[in-house]
Design brief:
By secondary structure, the chain is of the alpha/beta class. The chain has helices at 3-14, 65-73, 89-99, 116-126, 130-134, 138-152, 161-171, 182-190, 194-205, 211-223, 227-238, 242-263, 285-291, and strands at residues 37-42, 45-52, 76-79, 176-178, 268-275, 296-298. The protein has one domain (3-17, 34-298).
C-alpha cells in the first residue's frame, strides 16, 4: 500500500508530533529554499499561512526576505502543537496515558504474518524488550518504531522550521500559541480503528531503505514551493486509507479553517505555521478558505 510510503515522509510534512531533522544532500552556496507562503487579509487583519517542513537537514537555508518580513510583521505565531523541549516528560506522560492498554493481543498478532520478521528486527533495534510492545496500542508501537528508524538513518532533531520560528518570536518577546494540544494530536492516532492502526504499524516497519530517497523528493517539492507536487504525492499515498486521510488531514484542516475564520474577526497580524501537506491540494486549508469566500494571496 502506498500509505506505507506516506507513513515515513508524511510525518515530515504534516508534523504530527515532529520527531527529528532530516539528513539529505547539502545545499549549494547559492541555493536557498523558497517554500510557499500565503496571506489572507481584510482591512484590519492579516494572517500569514506558512507551510513548513518539520524534518530538515542541519543548517538548511529557507529564511527568505518574504518569510522574514512576515515574521517581523506578525505579532504572534501559531504552530500545530507546542512540544516542551525542557520537559519532554509531559509528552511522554501523554503517550503513556493514551498509548497503553490491558489485555491486548501480542503485537506480532496485529500485523500481516509475512511482516513479522521485519517487526522483530525493528523491535530489536530499539533495545526495548519485546514484551513492552505487546502492552502498547498498535498506533503507539508504530510511533516508537518509526522514531527508531529515523535515528538509525542519522536523522536528528531541532533542524526543522518550527524551532527557528519559535526562537525568532521568543527573542522578540512575541507570544506563541498552538492549534492543538499534545493530547489532541496523539488522540488522532488513538481514535483510529484497529485496521487503520494496523496500516500505520505496517508502514512504520516497511521499506526503510527507501525512506531517505522519499524524504529527499518531498523536501525538493517543499523547497521549490511546488505545492502541486506535494498535493499529488499526498493524494496518491493516502488514497488507500480514507480513514487515515480524513483523521490526519481532512478533519484537522477543517478545524484550522474554522479557527482562521474566527481569528479574522480580530484585528492584528499573526503567522500560522503548519505542515506543508495541510496547505496543498483540494482538501487543504487554502482551498477551504477560498470556498468560504476568502481571497488567499500567494506571496512566495
Amino acid at each position: 500500500m502506498r500509505v506505507m510510503n506516506w507513513m515515513k515522509r508524511g510525518l515530515a510534512a504534516l508534523g504530527l508530533i515532529a520527531l527529528a531533522g532530516c539528513s539529505t544532500a547539502p545545499q549549494t552556496a547559492s541555493d536557498v529554499a523558497r517554500p510557499a507562503l500565503w496571506r489572507v487579509s481584510d482591512p484590519d487583519t492579516s494572517i500569514y499561512l506558512f507551510g513548513t517542513f518539520h524534518l530538515l537537514p542541519q543548517d538548511y537555508r529557507w529564511q527568505t526576505p518574504a518569510i522574514n518580513d512576515a515574521v517581523a510583521k506578525s505579532g504572534q505565531l501559531y504552530v500545530e502543537t507546542i512540544i516542551d523541549d525542557k520537559h519532554p516528560e509531559k509528552l511522554a506522560a501523554e503517550l503513556g496515558r493514551l498509548g497503553f492498554a490491558d489485555n491486548l493481543p501480542p503485537l506480532a498478532n496485529r500485523i500481516d504474518p509475512a511482516l513479522r520478521p521485519q517487526l522483530a528486527t525493528a523491535i530489536k533495534a530499539t533495545g526495548i524488550p519485546a514484551g513492552y510492545f505487546d502492552k502498547m496500542k498498535t498506533w503507539a508501537a508504530a510511533f516508537t518504531l518509526v522514531g527508531t528508524q529515523f535515528k538509525a538513518l542519522g536523522l536528528k532533531g531541532s533542524a526543522g522550521v518550527e524551532p527557528a520560528l519559535r526562537q525568532s518570536f521568543e527573542t522578540a518577546g512575541k507570544p506563541i500559541g498552538q492549534l492543538e494540544t499534545n493530547s489532541e494530536q496523539l488522540g488522532f492516532f488513538n481514535n483510529l480503528s484497529q485496521p487503520a492502526q494496523r496500516v500505520f504499524l505496517e508502514g512504520a516497519i516497511s521499506e526503510p531503505d527507501k525512506m531517505r530517497t522519499e524524504f529527499a523528493a518531498m523536501l525538493k517539492s517543499w523547497s521549490s514551493g511546488d505545492v502541486a507536487g506535494i498535493a499529488s504525492s499526498f493524494n496518491a499515498d493516502l488514497a488507500d486509507s480514507p480513514e487515515l486521510k480524513d483523521a490526519l488531514l481532512g478533519r484537522r484542516n477543517a478545524n484550522w479553517t474554522r479557527w482562521i475564520e474566527q481569528r479574522m474577526a480580530q484585528p492584528g497580524t499573526v503567522m500560522v505555521a503548519v505542515g506543508a501537506g495541510h496547505l496543498a491540494g483540494d482538501e487543504s486549508v487554502i482551498r477551504m478558505l477560498e470556498t468560504q469566500g476568502y481571497k488567499v494571496s500567494r506571496i512566495q
